[in-house]
Design brief:
The complex is a heterodimer of chains A (294) and B (322). Chain A is of the alpha/beta class and 294 residues long. Chain A is built from 14 helices and 8 strands. In chain A, 59% of the residues are buried. Chain B has 322 residues and is α+β, with helices and mostly antiparallel strands. Chain B contains 14 helices and 7 strands. Classes of the chains: A alpha/beta (294), B alpha+beta (322).
Chain lengths: 294, 322
C-alpha cells in the first residue's frame, strides 16, 4: 500500500513522539509513505473555511498528481480534510477554488483524492487478519479503552458512511482485539476530549477530560488509545490538571494508535517514545513485559 | 398492537422515591409514541405528567429519552420504539439536561427560554428607508429559513458534550437562534451581538464536535452555524482577548510558515504583556520540555516548503475582503 502521507502539525510539534512511531510502524506494516512536505495546515477547524478550503484543495491536488490516497494520523486533520473534500465534490465550488487560488501555481484539483486515517488504512487496506498474524507481543488481554476523537466519528455520513459502517464503527475496538487486548467501551469514546475549549473555558475542558478518563478507568481500562494527537495533548498532557480539578487520582496512560500497534508488533517502548508522555506508561510496559515471540 | 412502556416517575410532593412504572396499551400500528402515551394517561393513569404541545412535529415540546436516546415522540412511530427496546418495554425518561417538574414534564424556562432570552432573538433595525422596504437577498432568506425551522426540541443540547459537564452553557439550540439574528442583514446590532455572545459560557465554549448537527432531527446543522458566528466574530475582532489572540496567532503562523507553530500559539494566546498568563504556561512547558516534547519557539520553527504558496492563498483571501 502506498500513501501520500500527511503527518499534520502536532505529530512534529506538541506530540513529537507520534511521528517517529508512525514511521516505524508504517514501515513494519509495509505501508509506503510519500510524505507531503510542501503543503499547509488543514486549518484544524480554527481557520475560516474560506481560507482553509483552498489550502486543503491544494493538498488534494498534489496527492491527485501523485495518484495516491492521503493518509492522515490525526482525527482533526482527517475530519477537516474530509469535510473540505466533500464540499469540493461540488463542481461549481471546486472550479471557483481552482480558478481563484490554484491555477496560478499550475494546479487544478479534479475532485478524486481519497483521504484516509491510518486507523482505516490498517483495518480496511491492510486487514485485521494480517495484522493479527504480525503480532509478536500480544497484549495479553490488556484492558484498553478506545478514544476516537470527535472528528473521526462526525459528521457520520462522511466519516462512517453506510458502506464503511462494518469497518469504521468499531475500528479501534477491532484493532485492540486483533493485537490481543481487551477493548473497553467507555461512554466518552466518540465524544470531544475538551481540547478545543482549553483557551475559552479551561474548567469545562478539564471536567470533560477528567470524566472521560475516569469513566474508562471505572470500566476497568488500564490504558486508553487514541488516533488523535490533539486528544492526546488533552488526555495525557492535561491529565494532572484534570485530576486536580476532579479532586481524585487518575493516572491512566494514554497511547497513540501507532504506539499500541508498534508495541504488539515488537517495538520497544523506547522505540515508540513512550518516555515522552507526561503520564507514566509503566503499567502498560509492565503488562506486556513478556518474551517477544521469535 | 400491544405496547409496553417503562416510565420514569417523579413527584416533587412525594416524600418517598416513586418507582418506575410499566403500562401496556393497545394502539394502532401507525400510532406515534406520543399517541400511545396520551392513551396511557387517558385509559390507565391520569396522574402521569408529560408535555405535549402541537402533537404534529412543530413545537418540540414532547422530546424525551426513549430507550436512552433523545427523540421527539410525536414524530417517532411506536414500531421504532419497540425496535429500539429490543425485547423489553420501551423505556421513557426525561432528557438528561432538564429540570424535572413531574414525571416526564420538564421546566421549559430553564431548558430553553432563559437561554433563548439571553441571545435576544429579535431583529433590531434602523428606521426603514423612506417609502421603501428593508430588502434581503433570496440567498439570505433561504438560509435564515432553515435556521428558523428549529422547533426547540432540544435534541442538539442533549447531544452537547459541554452541557454534559456544564448545564449553564448557552448550548447549540440558543446559539442557532442567535445565528438567525446575527446573519439577518436587516439587523443593525451585529457587532454588539457578537460581543454579547462572547459572554462567559457563551459561543466560544462550543467545541464544534458536530454532536449538535448529528442530533438535530431537522438537519439545521447547528455546528456549522456556530462555526459561521465564530468566523464573523474573528473578522470583527469580537470575543475575549485570549480567544481572538488564539485565532489571530493560528492564522499568522500558518500564513507565515505554512503550518502551525504551537509554541508561538501558546504564548500569543496569552499575549506578550500578560505576565500572569505567561507564567501560567511555565509549569506545563517545563514538564513537557523535560519529557522531550519540544514545540520550538518560533524563531526556530521551520517554514514548510511551499509556505510562500500558502501565504499567497492568505493574501488572495484577504484581498477579497475576507
Amino acid at each position: 500500500m502506498k500513501y501520500a502521507f500527511f503527518p499534520g502539525c502536532v505529530s512534529q510539534g506538541g506530540a513529537p513522539e507520534l511521528y517517529p512511531a508512525t514511521r516505524a510502524v508504517a514501515d513494519r506494516l509495509g505501508f509506503e509513505l510519500i510524505e507531503m512536505e510542501d503543503v499547509g495546515c488543514t486549518g484544524a477547524g480554527v481557520l475560516s473555511r474560506e481560507v482553509s478550503d483552498p489550502i486543503n484543495a491544494r493538498t488534494f491536488a498534489k496527492a491527485e498528481q501523485l495518484g495516491l490516497p492521503i493518509m492522515t494520523i490525526c482525527s482533526t486533520c482527517q475530519g477537516v480534510m474530509a469535510q473540505a473534500n466533500h464540499r469540493l465534490k461540488d463542481e461549481e465550488y471546486r472550479k471557483q477554488i481552482n480558478q481563484n487560488f490554484l491555477i496560478e501555481e499550475g494546479l487544478e484539483y479534479k475532485g478524486t483524492t481519497d483521504v484516509r486515517h491510518m486507523l482505516w488504512a490498517i483495518v480496511e487496506d491492510h486487514g485485521l487478519d494480517k495484522l493479527k498474524e504480525m503480532v509478536v507481543r500480544p497484549l495479553n488481554g490488556m484492558p484498553i479503552a478506545q478514544f476516537y476523537g470527535c472528528y473521526l466519528k462526525r459528521p457520520p455520513e462522511l466519516m462512517v458512511p453506510k458502506e464503511f459502517e462494518k469497518t469504521r464503527k468499531t475500528a479501534l475496538e477491532d484493532v485492540i482485539e486483533a493485537l490481543g487486548g481487551k477493548a473497553v467501551r467507555s461512554s466518552g469514546r466518540g465524544k470531544c476530549c475538551g481540547f478545543p475549549i482549553l483557551t475559552s473555558n479551561e474548567e469545562n475542558s478539564l471536567a470533560m477530560c477528567g470524566d472521560h478518563i475516569l469513566d474508562a478507568k471505572a470500566k476497568g481500562a488500564m490504558a486508553m488509545v487514541t488516533p488523535c494527537p490533539l486528544c492526546h495533548l488533552e488526555l495525557d498532557g492535561k491529565q494532572a490538571d484534570a485530576a486536580a480539578h476532579k479532586g481524585q487520582e487518575i493516572n491512566v496512560p494514554i497511547l497513540h494508535l501507532p504506539q499500541l500497534v508498534g508495541l504488539a508488533l515488537g517495538f520497544s517502548s523506547k522505540e515508540m517514545n513512550l518516555q515522552r508522555h507526561l503520564v507514566s506508561t509503566a503499567p502498560v510496559e509492565d503488562w506486556i513485559s513478556v518474551e517477544v515471540k521469535a | 398492537m400491544d405496547v409496553t412502556f417503562k416510565i420514569k416517575r417523579f413527584d416533587p410532593d412525594s416524600e418517598v422515591k416513586i418507582e418506575d412504572r410499566e403500562y401496556t396499551v393497545n394502539v394502532d400500528k401507525n400510532a406515534s409514541l406520543l399517541d400511545a402515551l396520551i392513551q396511557v394517561r387517558e385509559e390507565q393513569d391520569g396522574t402521569l405528567a408529560f408535555r405535549a404541545g402541537c402533537r404534529a412535529g412543530f413545537c418540540g415540546d414532547c422530546t424525551m429519552n426513549v430507550n436512552g436516546k433523545g427523540a421527539v415522540t410525536c414524530r417517532t412511530p411506536v414500531s421504532k420504539g419497540i425496535k429500539g427496546a429490543k425485547d423489553g418495554p420501551i423505556e421513557l425518561a426525561p432528557l438528561k439536561q432538564v429540570k424535572i417538574v413531574k414525571d416526564l414534564m420538564y421546566d421549559a424556562d430553564t431548558f430553553h427560554w432563559a437561554k433563548f432570552k439571553a441571545v435576544e432573538p429579535w431583529v433590531e433595525m434602523a428606521a426603514s428607508p423612506k417609502d421603501a422596504e428593508h430588502v434581503m437577498s433570496n440567498e439570505v432568506v433561504q438560509d435564515l429559513r432553515e435556521a428558523m425551522s428549529c422547533t426547540q426540541c432540544g435534541l442538539c443540547d442533549t447531544g452537547c458534550t459541554v452541557i454534559d459537564v456544564d448545564k449553564t452553557f448557552l448550548g447549540p439550540a440558543a446559539l442557532t437562534k442567535a445565528y438567525r439574528v446575527v446573519f439577518d442583514t436587516r439587523d443593525n446590532r451585529t457587532g454588539d451581538r457578537l460581543e454579547k455572545l462572547s459572554m462567559k459560557k457563551g459561543m466560544w465554549d462550543c467545541t464544534h464536535c458536530f454532536e449538535a448537527s448529528e442530533h438535530c432531527p431537522k438537519y439545521i446543522e447547528p455546528t456549522d452555524r456556530i462555526f459561521a458566528m465564530h468566523d464573523k466574530a474573528i473578522k470583527n475582532e469580537a470575543g475575549p482577548p485570549s480567544v481572538v489572540n488564539h485565532y489571530k496567532s493560528f492564522a499568522a503562523s500558518v500564513k507565515s510558515k505554512g503550518w502551525l507553530d504551537e509554541g508561538r500559539l501558546a504564548i500569543e494566546t496569552e499575549g506578550y504583556t500578560n505576565v500572569k498568563g505567561l507564567l501560567k504556561l511555565l509549569p506545563f512547558a517545563i514538564k513537557a520540555g523535560i519529557k522531550g516534547k519540544r514545540p520550538m519557539p518560533y524563531i526556530f520553527h521551520k517554514k514548510r516548503p511551499g509556505a510562500e504558496r500558502i501565504k499567497r492563498i492568505f493574501d488572495k483571501w484577504e484581498d477579497n475582503g475576507k
